[in-house]
Write a structure and sequence with these properties.
alpha/beta, 4-stranded antiparallel beta sheet, 306 residues, 2 domains, Rossmann fold
């Protein structure tokens, strides 16, 4: 299947000389949720702005649904809904009129039933006649999403959509994102809440200093790069790891009360059975055992650090 978005050798250098993107290439599949992770200033927003046609590339090519974003701008842009970081809404306009107006900007005829459906999905129907200025920050974010969906796009960009949104509203918002994906909408999001990417993304892209470090299926990434650790709580603290255990990859906590064993879950043998036998032979009594799998956040931090 051809990608719905294709980015090839994309470069962006500003007049100041700052190079925001460095030959970025990226293929985004139809119907997937792709999470773009990266520190502030990594180039996430610049990349999204260029795909949406809001910023011109210095070089490279972008196609959306087969349309070139420069030569076929109108056709490409009609496929895209964008929820920007900044909340820029007309404060005195009613919610429903704001959404209707956005639909009209894309040349679509009025569709009261569809507008109602969007507002109900986003829990905005009861606020439909409320002026924007009277809404909470979280509700304004929902209006931005409703505006982005007003022309029934095939692709939805969410640039830090839950910034400043409370936990309950954030959860509701991701429920909506899940329903949109089920209906066939391709979703690209940037977020600082890495646990959200871990929970809902199909693939994860990591960008730093204008470079794409990787784009990988989330589950495959976790399996390839995730580390599993066994924490061994000792009944009595020790000052050093016994020589008989030197062959194991063990770390001793500063207080001497815990050993940490790092192992590969994909290996034919993890070595745990032998370790526990040798711990007993070394005279170490165990109080508790527990395991921990490294999270996407751990992987992300390590990638950007390296």
């Amino acid at each position: 299947m051809d990608p719905i978005i294709s980015v090839t050798a994309l470069d962006k250098t500003y007049r100041s000389g700052q190079r925001a993107l460095k030959g970025v290439s990226l293929q985004i599949r139809s119907g997937e949720i792709l999470a773009l992770l990266g520190p502030n200033g990594a180039g996430k927003t610049t990349l999204i702005s260029m795909i949406c046609g809001l910023t011109s590339p210095s070089s490279g090519q972008i196609t959306v649904g087969g349309y070139d974003i420069v030569t076929d701008y109108r056709a490409a842009r009609s496929l895209i809904g964008l929820v920007p970081q900044e909340v820029a809404l007309e404060p005195f306009e009613k919610v429903i009129n704001t959404v209707k107006f956005s639909r009209g900007l894309f040349g679509h005829p009025p569709d009261a039933a569809y507008v109602e459906q969007i507002l109900r999905q986003l829990s905005l129907w009861d606020k439909r006649n409320t002026p924007i200025k009277e809404l909470s920050g979280g509700m304004k974010r929902r209006v931005l999403i409703a505006k982005a969906l007003s022309h029934q796009p095939k692709i939805l960009f969410l640039d830090e959509p839950t910034a400043g949104v409370d936990v309950e509203l954030r959860k509701d918002m991701w429920d909506v994102v899940g329903k949109l994906k089920a209906s066939g909408v391709t979703i690209v999001l940037t977020t600082h809440y890495i646990e959200e990417a871990e929970a809902i993304a199909d693939r994860v892209g990591v960008i730093a200093d204008g470079d794409i470090l990787l784009v990988e299926d989330k589950d495959k990434l976790m399996a390839q790069m995730g580390i599993k650790e066994l924490y061994i709580e000792l009944q009595k603290p020790i000052k050093a790891i016994p020589p008989a255990l030197a062959s194991y990859d063990l770390w001793l906590a500063e207080d001497g009360g815990r050993l940490t064993y790092v192992y590969d879950t994909k290996a034919e043998r993890t070595g745990i059975t032998g370790l526990l036998t040798d711990l007993s032979a070394a005279g170490l009594a165990l109080r508790d055992l527990r395991t921990s799998q490294s999270s996407l956040e751990d992987i992300f931090v390590d990638l950007v650090k390296d």
